[in-house]
Every structure is written in structure tokens, then in C-alpha cells.
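notes to self, project folder thing:

trying the whole complex as one job this time. last attempt i did each chain seperately and stitching them together was a nightmare. two parts in total, labels are on each line so i dont mix them up again. if this works i'll redo the older ones the same way
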Amino acid sequence: MKEIVHLSRRSFLKKGMLVGGGLILGFHLPLRGSLSGASNPSGVTFMPNAFIRIGADDIVIIIVNKSEMGQGVYTSLPMLVAEELEVDWKKIRVEAAPVDPAYNHTQWGAQGTGGSTSVWSEWDRLRKVGATARMMLINAAAEIWKVGPASCRAEKGFVIQKGTGQRISYGKLVEKASQMKVPKDVPLKEPKDFKVIGKSMRRLDTPEKTIGKAIFGMDVKVPGMLTAMVVHPPVFGGHVKSFNAEKAKAVPGVKEVVQIDLGVAIIAEGFWSANKGREALEIVWDEGPLAKISTEGMRGEFSRLAQTPGAVARKEGDPQQTFSKAAKQLHAEYEVPYLAHACMEPLNCLVDLRTNSCEIWTGTQMQTMDQNAAARVAGLKPEQVKIYTTFLGGGFGRRANPQSDFVAEAVSVAKAIKKPVKVIWTREDDMKGGYYRPMWYDQIAAGLNDQGNLIAWQHTIVGQSILSGTPFDPKKDVDPASVEGAGDTPYEIPNIFVNLHSPKMGIPVLWWRSVGHSHTAFVVESFMDEVAHSAGKDPYEFRCILLRKHPRHLGVLKLAAEKSGWGKALPKGRGRGIAVHESFGSFVAQVAEVSVNSSGQVRVHKVVCTIDCGRIVNLDTIKAQMESGIVFGLSAVLHGEITFKNGRVDQSNFHDYPLLRMNEMPVVEVYIVPSEEKSGGVGEPGVPPIAPAVCNAIFSVTGKRIRRLPIRVEELKKT
Amino acid sequence: MISLDVNGKKYKVDVHPETPLLWVIRETLGLTGTKYSCGMALCGACTVHVEGEAVRSCVTPVSSVDGKRITTIEGIGRTKEGKAIQEAWISDDVPQCGYCQSGQIMAAVALLKRNPRPADTEIDKTMSGILCRCGTYQRIRGAIHRAAKRMSKGGER
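result (full assembly):
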């Protein structure tokens, strides 16, 4: 493999860079056969910075530093560049960035994708990058024409001389532009002049994803590559006591069986022989300290913990005193389970480890951390580790692991066998492999005065901390990711107390699309509904009163009520539920319309979703992400649950961890509240409101309150 | 040796007869558009056509399709229904992560071959076999209608 250009070490910022095809060849490798494959492979190119490369063929390659996992960054981020660069959209190609500090997240100091941050965190940088390149192209043309740059303008990939109308394409300017000084502080467009930002642009990756040509980690192949599977302990925290590989090695195609840190690896010619070898492998496990844990035991432990005082996340007024004097008191317990991300592409990682280099092909959301982890395992320096980010067959947080589990493990297998190897997790490995959304147990109480006003709120949260023990550990009593959406609830409540217990359970946990909000929105928005009903008020109007100082919450709530026909009659047997939640800088309200049949099965017919995500970039992507978040959340509401017995995960595949299917798909309508505020995220904010919206709708139609997810049909069955 | 006709191309493969067709297509023939996800015929990501019928290649032993005509995502665009479906998928920007989409498209094409104007209920019934974690179901439904409509107009746009 060719050496990758170390971008940060080149003098991008002093001068444009002229690179020949040979030198940048290594740069093309990450997405062989992908979008970038056919574009300016040879000849002269203009590379004004780490994010743009223009070829003599007029093709503009935009190097994207975020991982494309379905959320549309391979389109939305190029839109930011294209807006300022003034380029013909059809000429744009996308390439995945290598791992390099030049591509670090503008807020994190490391390269990675997550937290619904991609668009807003690149909003300034990528527009500047585009504007600067445009200015250099204009300056180049002006020099050729011997006119002032002010008499030239750029449009759709051409520099045009005002007055004469003479034009020259970007491709013809690459050589000259590369000699131009990089201008400083090029003014950016006013939003009123946007031609690309705010429109619905077709996704650049749709064609290749429609003809089977998109390359995922699972699809990459290098010469001499073997396939490996790793058998992990049946219980988290367990390890190998002994193993007998005799029968496994006798399986045709099996090459080697080696013990690594976390289990035993079977290395074979292909997937099937590895799987056959695995079936023949005999392992004796030391199951470790968690061999007896069960979900029932953990639920008991969590509920006992909730009786004791936790770490204070928020305290205002005198909640205890007010509560005891309240005219009406409400108490409830809410529970949600561990959840698997269950990306359609099971985890996998290809490693080619040599004496002085380590090349990795994988779909990851966390390039810098994975690079460091790989270097540690391989005994190399981080800069000796190259990561080629492929398309991700779903991410949802699972491929952003501060522990770099699937990358580090693949490097350790490669190190053991000294051959290029792709480690593939089977669906069962993926489902049982941990890094789940934590299980949560909540106790919540509200006090109302004699006018039915909410005067006191007490909320106790129990569940594992995601950040604890990671490089993101806040080293405080309260992990903000555990209480987000609860500790900072915007509802105007004069006396409020939110506290947290973070028991260490030993179950690997991780952010799962919308992180803490996936749990807190369910609890807060369901309980708020309980309070409204108890006060004899309409749940929508009740929320509007308590949110009167929060115009963006109100904006989405009002639009959702209007578009869903809130308060209007529904066919018999149907009910509506409403919820609103802010997360990742965006505000989302949803109204779900449901029915429940006599055997207790819930049908979600329709969801009206409204979002205020500030200034929008790709309109259609916002709609797609709302549809996506709603489906993701519905899978958890109706089906999702990871449980334990005797230390073992009960679920293994899609028969016992079902996902929403087409026949359960509601009609989803998405409406966007126009806004000039700073952009918020869209990948995650669609998830949190759906669980409470559905459960509130169930209450309105059955009078039964769902306080534990997933919904159990027994609870709703007519008796 | 097992004889396969994949996308009109003839192959002779020397693999264990029990090997699932999926892995022969992906690893032996190098056609990676067909995906592995569950290995148990639960998700449909591995759907291909055998003699025009949608089949889960992850549980189909290669010996059972010896001599048969197989079509994968890489070849489906050469059929009338395949072309219409792929064009509709692009028009509606259906894919998100894209991993399940080969299976979705192969299932949708088989549906249109069977019924050129399927109603929602039939779309739901057929397409419920193919999981999409990104939740593109609503767009899939719409794109199948779009493709059906286009085909009924004799390919007019």
C-alpha cells in the first residue's frame, strides 16, 4: 500500500499544493471502487487545503472527515464546501479522510463522528475552506487575464470575467491556482445568498448504495487476507481457562487457532470455514465474578438503591418540604432495559500488520482513538497506523467505542498470526458482545397544589455511567450523560430535585443513538403526561403553560398539535399522545396516533414530527433522519430488550431481539420550524420523543400507563 | 465442482457443497453487494434471485443451486423491474447506511415481477422480511409504488 500523505505536516496554509497523481494515489485507497474511484486519478490537481482537491478534469473531490453511517454527512458536509466554492454539484465526489490531526473534530481535538455534531461543528470551517479555494481560483484567473480579482466572479465551476463574460473552468486553473497565496479572512456568503445550503440535495452516496457498489468494512479484501472469528467468554469479565483446538484445526480451511486477550480466535480461509472451526472448538471458561447476575437481580438492586440519596444533579427550591404539603402527590417507577445497537452490518475489522506499519480498514466513528489503541496493541507509534474508513453499515454509537474493542481485538489477532486478517463478528457475537445502552430504573414523584399546578418534582435515576472509566470521564459524581434531559428539564417547576446513582455493574455500556435522552425523555415526558391528566388538564396545553418561557419548545409543540389535528376527533379505538424534547441542540415534538387490539398488540398508525434544528443544511436529510429516529425508537418501544440470566445475555439474533419491520411502519410526517438559530443536530433528536408519544397515546386510548419498556402485550390485554 | 450462472456469467466453483451461497458469491466470486447480517434468514440482507425467485442466500447450500440461474444486486439492473426499482430508489433517496438495501431491492424486484401493481398491504407483507435498522421503510414503500407506476406507463418518465 502506498504511503498516505501527512496532511497536517504539509504547508497547506501558506500555499496551495500541487500534487501529481502518483503521490496522492495512497489517498484514494480508502474507498477503492467507491465514489472517488474514477476521479482525477492522474495528472495535476489543486489541493488548497486538506478538504478539497480539484482535478484538471474539473472534478472536485471533497475529503470528508466524518464517517458516513446513513446520516448523510457525505452530502451535507460537501454542501457546506460547495456553497462557498461555487461548484457544479454534479462534479463533486467524496472521499473518506485518512486519520490525521488535520481532520480532527473542531470541538474534540480528535477525529470522530458522533453526538449529532457533524454539521454545526463544520459549519464555519468547511465554508471557509470553500471560500478560500474559490478566492484562489479567482485570483489565478485574474492573473491570467491580467485584471483585478474584483472584476471576476465564480459560478458553477467557472471563473467569469464581469463585463466581457470570458470564462475559464476550475480544471483549467488548477496549476495556476496552486501557485497562489492562500488568502486570509475571505468573507463568507450571507444566508440570503445561499444556493445550496437549506435545499434538498440528492445524497451523493445513493447511486452506489443502490447497485451494490458501496464498500463497507465487511467488503474490503487485501491480497493474502484470512478471515477470523473470535469466541468471547459467555459472561462479561470471564476468560479462557483452557481450550482444545484439535477438532477445530481438522476442519478444512481452518488455518490457525490462537488465544488472545478476550477469547480464542479461529483463523480460516473464509467465513464458513471459520464458523465450522468455531463449532468444533472446545473451550473451558473461567466465567469470572458476573457468572450469577440476572436482569431480575439487577432490577431489585436498582430499586433498592433508589431508596437511598444519590448524587445531586439539580436542586432548586425546597422540593421535599413542598412535596409533603402538596394537595396531591403522584409517584411512579419507570424502567428501561439494556439495548443493543444491532447495526445491520455486524462489527468487523481488517488489519494488515507489518514490522513498521499497521493498515486498518473498518467502519469506525472514532479514528483517532482507534489509531491509538491499534498502536498500543501493535507496539507501533500512532502515526504508523493508517485507518481507511469505509462506509458504516449503521453506527448509532456502537462504532464509537473509547475502548476501541473491535479494532484492538483485530490488531491482536493480526499480531498473533502475522498475516492480513479480517475479523468478522457473527450476528450472535455482535448481539452478545456488550456495549449496550444502559438499563435504567427511575423513581419519580410530583406534587400539585389545589389549583392543579405542578409545584414539586423529585426524580431519582439509577443506571450505569457510560463515561466513567473512559477518556471522557467527567470525574464528577454526576455523569452528565446519565441525567441529560432530566436534570436540565425546561419545565417551569419551582421546587425540583434530581439525583443519580451510578452503580458499577460490569456490563459494557455505550452511547446508543441519543444517549441519556433515550431514557430521560421517556420518563419525563410520560410522567408529565401523568401529571397533566391528574391535574385534569390537556397534556398539550399543560406543557405549553410550563414551557411558556421556551419559545423553541413551544414552536415545535404548537406545530405538532396543529399538523396532527390535536383535540380533533379520531376514529373509534384510536388515541393520540404528545411529547416534546430538546437534545443535541434541536427541538422535536411528536404526536403518535395508536390503537391497541384486544390481545394487547399496539399499532402505531401515524407519527407527526416537528423539528426546530436551527439553520438547516440538507432539508431532505432532516426528514430522513426524523423518519429514521422514529423507527429506531419504535423498535425499542415495541421490542428491544437485552436481558441476563446466569451472567449470560439471553438474546442472540433478530428472532429474540426483533427490530421494527415494514408491516409495523407508521406513516411519518415531518415538518420543520423555520429558524435562523445556530444549527443543531439531526441524527439523534428524532429518537427521544417517540417512546413517550406512543405510551401517552396508549394511555389516552386504554387508560393504561406504560412505565416499563419494551411494551408488554400482557399489560394491555383486555381481560 | 459446482456450476453457477451468476448475472449471466458461468462459473465453476470448488467449494464445500454445504457452503452457503452467500459466501460463495461474496468470497469466491468477489461480488460483495450481497450482504451478511444474521446468517439465519431473519433479516433478508442476503436476498438474491434463484431462477427469478427471491432466496435467502445465507441459508442456501451452494450445492442446492448447482446449474441454476442466479441474479445478484450487481446484475438486477439489467432486468426491466430491476432498472425501474433502482431508478425509483435513487429518485426517492431511499438508502441511509445502505447495508440492507441490496436485499430490499432484490425483494422489491421479485415482488414487482409477481405483481406489477402491488397495494400497500402486499408491499408490507413481502417487504416485512427485510430489516432496515435506519428505518427507510416509508421511502421503500413509496419507491415501489413509483417504480410500479413508471413500469405501467411503459417506461415513460
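what i see at first glance: The first strand of chain A starts at residue 17 and ends at 19.
need to look closer tmrw
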